[in-house]
Every structure is written in C-alpha cells, then in structure tokens.
Amino acid sequence: MGKYKKHILYSLYLIAFVAMVVVAYTSSKYRPESVSVLFTDFSWLGNWPKWLDLPLMPYLNEGFDKLIREYGMFFEGINNFLLGLYTQMKNFMVGLPWPLLMVGVITLCYFASGRNMGTTIMVAFCVFFLGFLSPRYWDKCIMTTCIVVIGMLLCLVIGIPIGIMMARNKKVRNALLPVLDLMQTIPSFCYLIPGILLFGLGAVPAIFAIFVYAVPPLIRLTDQAAEAFGANKKQKLLGVQLPLALPNIMQGINQCTMMALAMVVIASMIGTRGIGDEVLLGLQQLNVGMATEAGIAIVLLAIIFDRITQSYGEKIQERTHHKKNIKL
Length: 328
Fold this sequence. Notes:
Shape: globular
Order of helices and strands: HHHHHHHHHHHH
Number of helices: 12
Number of domains: 2
Strand content: under 5%
Oligomer: single chain
Radius of gyration: 25 Å
Largest sheet: none
CATH topology of the largest domain: MetI-like fold
Helix content: over 70%
Distance between the termini: 45 Å
Number of strands: 0
CATH architecture of the largest domain: Orthogonal Bundle
CATH class of the largest domain: Mainly Alpha
C-alpha cells in the first residue's frame, strides 16, 4: 500500500509540473503563434525562452492587496497592540535612572545564572560599556532590547505550543517541516517587505520580521525535546515532561534570541529606531568609527542576552540532573 502511495504522490508532482508549464505558456505574451513552431525552430533552446516563466508576481501582489483590503482592520489592531506595548515598555525603561536599570539587569543575571559571579561580572561589564561607549547608545540599546523582548515573547507564546504539536502529531510535523525550511532559507531582509505592507514602517514590522525569522529554531528544538522526553496525548500542553525538556527548549530560546537581535539590526533599513540605525548611519556616511562603535555595542548587547539565557538553561539542566540522580 505504501508503494502505491509513493507512485500516486510522484504522479501528482508530475501533473503539477505539467500544469505549471502549460499555465506559463498560455499566459505569456511572448509565446509563439503556434505550438508547432517549437518543433521547427529550435532557437529557444539556446537561451531560456521568455514564454517559459511562472507569472508569480502578479498573483502575489493581488493576494497581498486582497489581504489588506479584507483584513486591514485586523492587522491594524495587531499593529496598535504591539506598538502600544513597545511604547510603554520603552518609556518605562528609558524613564528609569540608568544606575537602577543597570543594577536590575545585573541582579537578573545573578539569579538567572544560579549566583555565578563570573557570568554576573561579565554582564555588568557589558552593561556599563553600553553607555560608556557613547551616552546616546544607552537609550538606543533600550529600544533594541524592547523590540527583541517583545519578538521573543511572541516566539515563545506561539513557537513552543507548535513544537509540542509537531511532537504529538506526525502529520502536523510533515506539513510544517517544509514551511520551517523555507522560513530559514529565505534571506532575512525579505521578511521586512510583508511587514511593511501589513504594518507600515517602524518597530512593529521589525517585531513581525523577528518572529518569522527567529521562531523556526525554537519550534524545531521544542519538537525534538518533546519527542525525546515524551509528549503523548494524555499529557497537558505545558506538561511535556517540562522539567526534562526545558534545558533543550532553553537552547532554542538562546538561538532565537541571537537571531532576533541580528534581525533588529537589519530592520534599521525600514526606519526601526535602535542601535542598528547607528550602524546604518555610519555606513551611509562612510564613518568607520561610528559604525565600529555601534557594532561593538551590538556585540555587548548580544553577550548580555546570550549569557543570561545560556546560564539560565545551564542552571535548569543542573537541577534536572540532580533530580534524576535523586530518583535513581
């Protein structure tokens, strides 16, 4: 039975391929007057013929126009919610005295790392040098941090349940794996285009691009962890043997965070405020010093995110191994 299914699937692929060629030929304005010309004049074999192209662009543009017309209010609601959340978070953090904010980040790292003084000192050094490099970088790093945090929250809320669903259902996994491959293959700046069309310029399209770009590794690692440690139908959604699977999920969160930070820098091209626009401004002005300074600030910010998430994952892993040893 499985052998016949494969033959049927291959036949469907062949039919789809022939259908695409026929559509390309019949819809092209460059096609020959008659099909018989193709068998008498073989010049079309030298260079790729103009009539053999898939008219994908008009359909995509029409689809986006229809999507915006019919669901514009829905996307506007999402835009207002995310923009309001970003604005409130940014205003709150910018309004705090910088020593208080610095102490808060250092304290968070201290407890997240399991009171590891080495990691805490490294993070404290990085936080101090964000403002020490240039005072204007302090507020810009806060803007970037707010965008990354909101994007990460979206990835966690949506990515982890999808990863668990993939572990519980093979059909869902087989359907989503090609989509995840496509999401990780498309160049990152391409995600800015639909974000601009749906949400305009600013922070919200950057958050959208972060979600699309950074969520695949989180989904994959959650899927692997849930499958490895058990996720049968009798278990709750958040009970995927969570104490055992959480260290692997934290690795996905760490990767997701790093990718989100990289995406924020790229998003500066569409007017997203943050430390990324300092790099862009330095490149536009051929100011090597400005671009290098901003690049160092981005590296410091990446170290802060990496050390906090990585050390928290190691802390959870140590607790998990300790519980296993006690049970044994």
